[in-house]
Records
---
Amino acid sequence: MPNEPNLIVLTINGERKEVRVWPTETLADTLRERLGLTGTRIMCNEGECGSCSLLIDGKPVLSCLTLAIECEGKDILTIEGLADPTTGALHPIQKAFVEHSGMQCGVCTAGVILTAKALLDENPEPTEDGVREALAGNLCRCGNYKSITKSVLAAAEMMKGDAQHG
Amino acid sequence: MITEKLKYLEPKTIEEAVSLLSRHKEAAKVIAGGTDLITQLKKGAELPRYIINIKGIPNQDSITYDEREGLRIGALATIHSIEVSPVIRQKFGVLAQAASELGTSQIRNCATIGGNLCNAAPSAETAPALLVLEARLKIAGANGERTVHIEDFFTSPGQTVLHPDEILSEIQVPNPLPRSGGVYIKQTVRKALDLATVGVAVITRLDGDIIRDVKIALGAVAPTPIRARKAETVIREQRLDDALLDEAGLVASEEASPIDDIRSSADYRRKIIRVLVGRAIRQAAEQIKAV
């Protein structure tokens, strides 16, 4: 009978991390409690708010409903992985959120930014409706939806510009 | 929710999964997308002693189409893959529509059609569409395989005909008849990220203005998802007009047995069924005319 957590290897923001997890431990808890990556927020903890959203193999998922033990061999991107690891330069989406007041209390922000990243990676020129629909699974209790949408659309513009000059 | 005694198992074949379930029976819980199971465990459902992750079984998530046989969907196909599948959008649009309404994008990336059906919520998003499509469900168990018509699959809220050693492996959908239109309408309290207060799926085939065939299914308004067969009989072979659609809606609302709950009252649900059935048939009819 197992009496210690299972040893697994998670690939987080490009780095391999060995960690021991209980089978029913969620990825959100593992990231926050065992790996000190507290950028991923837990708000409702039951899959109804989207705050814990992060990207696994490029797709937005709810980390509070994902078992850590099932994430071996997958590419996990958390909010800590967005800024440039060497220079610390913010990702365009992060810059846009700063410029356009995309956050107020910040609890929903990590989940929103990562979900927005997945959207823009798939569709670099979304409409406003497209942004709202893609972010429908991310609730913002500050009610900052207008600025969130504006920030994502501004990020799209920035990234289009970067792509053209890159 | 964490217990040290829980064992995590990863079968690599259906046979292995079935063998594990035969051995452990109710002490084991299958996990696919996990979006229902983990929520339930967090809310205090009894913890199993074994969690069986079936996502390691290969070739269980494919969507294949054949002109004669129709559609075959592996039980592990994600709701997202069904939402965006070109063949499902084109030929089985009511199912693609239902898939697009489930939860949110994050949930759809993980949730599976098998899990949606086996969790057997009365509001299961894909159920009304599969009911009007007359899907058949392939089930693997210790005694071999069997196929069950979806209308016989659900027995009560959260319960299906699956035995403890059985696992849903495939959803088979026959070709819809030519020149038919299908629509799924979900009534919700919130604009997004909500269970259906009422779900209505319709497939209809018209001959000019005559309703040659119609199938109506309702979700979230009975202990299981149901076909509204009395409503279908009332309007089959009749001329499509507003009065007829209202009658269909009325009969359907009486076939349902909705309850009062946190989302809505039984009375309001009946009223909404009456409206949505007519609306869905009208939209399906317009789909046919638009082709």
Note: The mean pLDDT of chain B is 95.
---
Amino acid sequence: MKNPDYGFYSFLLLGALSVFFLVQLLGGGYYLLVAFYVLQYVVLSTAWNILGGYGGYVNFGTAGFFAVGAYSTVFFFKLLGLQELKRLDLGFLEISLPYLSFIYFPAAVLAGAFFSGLLGLGTGYLTLRLRGVYFSIATLALSIVAMTIVVNWSYVGGARGAFVIKPTVVAGFRDANLFVLCAMILLAMFSLAVARNIERSKLGAGLQAIRDDEDSAECSGVPTLRLKLQATTVSGGLMGAGGALFPFFVTYVDPIGAFNLAHTVNSIAMPLIGGMTHWTGPLFGATLLGVIQQYFGSKNIITPEMSLLIVGFLMMLFVAIAPNGLLGLFKANDKTSGSKRSTKKPLIFGKDGSI
Amino acid sequence: MEWSIAGELLANAVVTGILLGGFYAAVAIGISIAFGMLDIANISHPVMIVLGSFLAYYFNAQWGIDPLAIMFPVAALFALYGAGLYSLYFRLFESREKDQRRGLAFFFGLLFVTEVGLILIFGVDLRSVETAYGEEVINLGFISVPIRLLIPFLIGVVMIIGLHYFLNKTYFGLAVSAISQDMLGLRLMAIDPIKIKQLTFALSLASAAFAGAALIIIQPIEPSIGREYIGRVFAVCVLGGMGSLQGTLIAALLLGTAESITSTFVGPSWAPAIGFGILLLTLAFKPEGLISRK
């Protein structure tokens, strides 16, 4: 992509602004929570899709990568004593409390992304040389082991969990939660941009080749291992970045919440339902599924367990019947109508010829 | 004096570990069959074991039936379920592509749905069974052998030996080995490989009923406990070498002993990490496993 794509970026900006103002218009509170929840899943499912959708490697460890990001925030908050920090004195510059968030939010996101990316790289390096099934199994086991480590690690709260006091005041925002939401909006925009750029880059083309036929790709000179490792690292890093913001929003992190298998199931079901071959698929699936879950949850129509059960069933249904998701179904309809037209033409032609 | 205490602890840990290993063999054998011989990565197997445990619990709580008695009808039920599941799997995935990844997502959905279903029915509390032998311990000098570990060990060992003979001495068993070696040859002998695979998959799920009965004899259960076993079973299967029964048994005994020693000398909460460590190291350095079939 030589010329920047203004259409795409203005779409992102427009989407971000409309989320922001919609939440403002509805009075924040509960709607802020819904927006955060949905955006968190936009990030997670977009990240999952980079490896799972483009490359065809199923990652069952979303919860693990997410939690590593969340716990890196908890860890550094405790290590650097950020809870009690009132101002930062850099010598030449003194940063007061309302402005501190602008420093440690990006720092937390970078740290979370770094550790989760490293985890992705490590797991990938050990298992990606084998058949894809082994990678999937390793990632599934990975989140369980990461959870074991966190439960045993009393410094970050152990099984009891840990509190992260969120910034009380942020310059320019009347509500600190709104600031956390804005950070998530930016991260979601960033994830979508990353996914779209990968899709259109050499990496994306290579991943698609791997998905379609890895042996042929390898034979045609696609550096499969390197591409898979890059995708795993980027994917894991984005999941960790999403996880790093999680403690700020909920202010309390415990292993059961952070390592919840629901993160994994949702982040797979959303791209599956939306469509895995295009960056809009996860966005669409996460918005649809996230909003539906929140809506029915808030009306007490279904319990959280029921909603997870339904997501599980939907996932099985889509993987069995419509592996290309809703977007794929729309496209298939277009194609069949198109092919009908093309088959009609010669027919008429034949008739004309016979007459 | 201190050394002798450590020695006794170690001896007990090794004995417990071997008993535990026999149980792990029972848990892993179904995956070893499905994944190693049929090439079906059924990651929902551990949760099927938990389902078997819950059925054993239910019959025990309602009518006081011993898990060891109820496991046979449950196994028959699971075999039927396995046969149905395989024909569904074959129609949806195996007949269309040789790639397993979509099937894997399918089984993951199944794992999740079963687990949430169990939560909805039984809740998240720990459940256990009442048996006459649950508290009994055989003392051999300073080594104590709890019955609740000995029975699952025996179940695992019997299953491994039984399957070994079944696969090597019977016509059907030889056909199963032929599937992973020469599918075309099998067809030429006028044997329907799909039928064989279906029956074998049914066998693999039936083993979950026995492992489930063993599980609830060992420890109280709750619906999500199957997850702890995912790392373990695949560690056992990969380390043992896919589809090798002797390998599965050896790897299960190794894992059990390693976990038991860790529990005794480091802490029980670290035990789940052992299986995963073994899994990762094996995948990285010896992916063909200890006993390779090829």
Note: The longest strand of chain A covers residues 88-89.
---
Amino acid sequence: MSDLFDKFDPLIELRDGLLESGVTDPFGLVMERVESPTVAICNGKRTILLGTYNYMGMTFDPDVIAAGKQALDDFGSGTTGSRVLNGTYVGHKEVEQALKDFYAMDHAMVFSTGYQANLGIISTIAGKDDYIILDIDSHASIYDGCALGNAQIVPFRHNDVEALDKRLKRLPPEAGKLVVLEGVYSMLGDLAPLKEMVAVSKAAGAMVLVDEAHSMGFIGEHGRGVVELQGVIDDVDFIIGTFSKSVGTVGGFCVSNHPKFEILRLVCRPYVFTASLPPSVVATAATSIRKLMNSADKRAHLWENSKRLHAGLRQLGFTLGTEEPQSAIIAVIMPDLETGAAMWEALLNEGLYVNLARPPATPANMTLLRCSLCALHTEEQVGEILGMFAAAGRATGCIS
Amino acid sequence: MPDRQQTFAKVLEQVEPFNKKGIAVSDATRFAADLEWDSLTVLDFVANIEDEFDVIITMNMQAEIENVGQLVDALEKLTAGK
């Protein structure tokens, strides 16, 4: 008789080996208190947060919190039902209206998480004889959306316009095609060449879906994402996003101008067969989204932070994921998992939290220390962060 | 040379740059178990095969292909009538 867990043995061994070396478990951190979007208490120690997706620092916004408290009082703690049955409250309609206003689009559909938004939209709109053409470095939720559906899946090399174009041209002209792209790729923090990619996709008669999870609120004049920055927002068919990054709570969405979009509410299983978001969550999301529309100053400050951290880390001698800062994510490339874990721990001891990312989540089997900045990181904090990287880098031998 | 043999020879040419252990490749050679390719190597290899034969090998098809012989057979079908 075989144990179904035997398949996990290689990972268990890898993990045990790492922990036996005495390093703190990088995937077991607990935040005991959270003081602000940029500071928490971890292991009793004040820790600067440089590994959250709280890009716009909305989690402690007084208006956002007040809206959530009011909704708890007025509507209770949860809906206990599906959006299509008893789970749509006025707050769910209000947050969908906020999204339509934010993106200036006709339709918005809110899911319980961003993961479910990709799962639902991708698996539902691409059927058995349709093709999904996707970047090989796509997020797990995109791959899982493909796996949940039964379309034909065609991957192409990361950010390679020619590879995409070639594959589109080899597909049957009459077949339904969905090209799935991301505005910001979250591991290295690099942008997609959406302008070129959307153009070749449209020329091939494909619909285009862009996941803007890591750009919403920050990139583009109105914070609508890389599609806005590169001037192709009117040419994409679907934008997927999340409330768990810049918006500062949890939830996912799809916005679109497709005239038949609303039918998805009846046929999209990850939308129908799960409970809707709690009233307090949609209230905080709606308030946050409306405030993000007028956050040009915060966007400008976040860019300053990103540029300064990128330049500073490079000057210290670290290898970074992108030549220039392209987003609020700056990935520091580590030579291997052991060094990465040691550096991660040294930073934590200094009082800095970053994300340790390892295969299979990373491209090209890289180990990364992923830094994600917040608009509320002060200039002083960015200076402190660079000091911590210098000390930890020297202590672990990552830099000289 | 018969068609299948030609296809096999072309596939072999594409395998060689990734044949790090220099093993003898036959129809029965398995990509994961024998050539020990990881998913990134598979991606590079498939992209090269797609360009060489001007075809698309979807991930759905890749899931069914474990060895060189199966790939050659799949390519024979994909290029039939071209």
Note: Chain B has a mean pLDDT of 92.
